[in-house]
Amino acid sequence: MEENMQYDDLGTLAQLNWFPGHMAKAKRIIVENLKLVDVVIELRDARIPNSSANPILKDLIGKKPHLIALNKIDLADNNINNKWEEYFTSMGKSVVKINSLDGKGIRQLVTVADELAKVKTAKFANKGVKPRNARVMIVGIPNVGKSSLINRLSGSASLKTADKPGVTRAKQWIKIKNNLDLLDTPGILWPKFEDPEVGLNLAFTGAISDEVYDIERAAEILLWRLKDDYAKNIKERYKIDEIPQTSEELFTLVGKKRGFLQKGGIVDTEKTAIAVLKDFRAGKLGKISLERP
Length: 293
Ligand SMILES: Nc1nc2c(ncn2[C@@H]2O[C@H](COP(=O)(O)OP(=O)(O)OP(=O)(O)O)[C@@H](O)[C@H]2O)c(=O)[nH]1
Known about the structure:
The chain is α/β, with parallel strands linked by helices. It has two domains: 2-11 and 196-281, Orthogonal Bundle (Conserved Hypothetical Protein Ylqf, Chain: A, domain 2); 17-184, Rossmann fold (3-Layer(aba) Sandwich). It contains eleven helices and eight strands. Strands 1, 2, 3, 4, 5, 6, 7 and 8 form an eight-stranded mixed β-sheet that branches. Helix 1 (9-16) crosses helix 7 (196-205). The longest helix is centred in the middle third of the chain and has 22 residues, at 106-127. The relative contact order is 0.16. The structure holds guanosine-5'-triphosphate. The site of guanosine-5'-triphosphate has 16 residues, from helix 6. Guanosine-5'-triphosphate binds at residues 71-72, 74-75, 99-101, 140, 142-148, 188. Keywords: Cytoplasm, GTP-binding, Nucleotide-binding. Belongs to the TRAFAC class YlqF/YawG GTPase family. MTG1 subfamily. It comes from Megamonas rupellensis. InterPro entries: G_CP_dom, GTP-bd, GTP-bd_ortho_bundle_sf, GTP-bd_ribosome_bgen, GTPase_MTG1, P-loop_NTPase.
């Protein structure tokens, strides 16, 4: 495949997952829940902080305090995680790097959320009314780690129900600090899909279902892309001495090295693709960042 290879449908296919009906419903739910909270925690995938953003979240949130949590830092390049942190900070945004599985950064996340919530709690205090706890919600695109983070935060916390007038279902709030309650259901947002490059990043990281795009092509493109900055990782993982000249040769070689051969010695491209995507997503290819600020 050439440098400007055909990306065509991968981006479009991502859109299939989120036809307008789904998007309208997701938006409605988020808008409803946003009314109940004081602070929004937006989860992004540290490997793709740009591609894992939602295009209209900024408009939905308005002036509400908002913080970006770069999740899955364990799978991304440490140096680049730091660069993203500097970048967002330089843009005047609150940002925290976290790992929702082992809990790294979670304490800081709560501290920052608490700080941001003070704007609201201070208002109660100024009015002389008994302050209610500040309320927080988590939003993010599919598979970014929303449930994992909620589970982590609710680990030892207590669930409590708050009846809010005008809301059909009673909302469940998880007490994460004395003065901070977390909405137990996250807001699921659709990703950006106009840009084919974004579609690919979402496919690589598993944000869109493997059913809706060509996994063989995606895996081939992924390997070809990684060979620029992460050739060493590919060579080590698949015991390859030299990166071949074309993406197709590289993909086939990986299949061969993994022993995915059909009768007649032909490489099983489906098995190869599944293995490559799995390796990447599980961190078996090392800590990899697909986007830089
Ligand atoms: N390595 C790593 N994996 C993570 C982390 N956070 C979540 N995951 C994994 O990412 C996958 C998706 O996590 P979920 O918590 O289900 O993500 P979600 O955003 O709730 O997903 P949807 O329900 O599809 O919207 C799971 O396999 C998690 O184990 C993290 O910080 N590091």
